[in-house]
Amino acid sequence: MRAPGAGAHGSADVPPPGAERPAEHLPTTEGTMATTTRRRASISDVARLAQVSVGTVSNVLNRPDRVAPATRDRVLTAITELDFVPNGSARQLRAGTITTAGAIVLDVANPFFTDVARGIEDRLDEAGYTLMLASSDEDPEREARYLRLFEEHGVQGVMVVPATPDLAHLEAARARGLRVVLLDRPSPSDTLSSVAVDDRAGAAAATRHLLGLGHERLAFVNGSHSIRQCADRAAGVRAALAEGGLDPQTALVEITIPSLNADGGQTGTQQVLALNERPTAMLCVNDLTALGALRALRAADVPVPSGMAVVGYDDVAFAGELATPLTSVRQPTHQLGHHAADLLLRPDDAVEHVTFQPELVIRESTTGTG
Question: Which domain holds residue 114?
Answer without folding.
Answer: 25-196+336-355
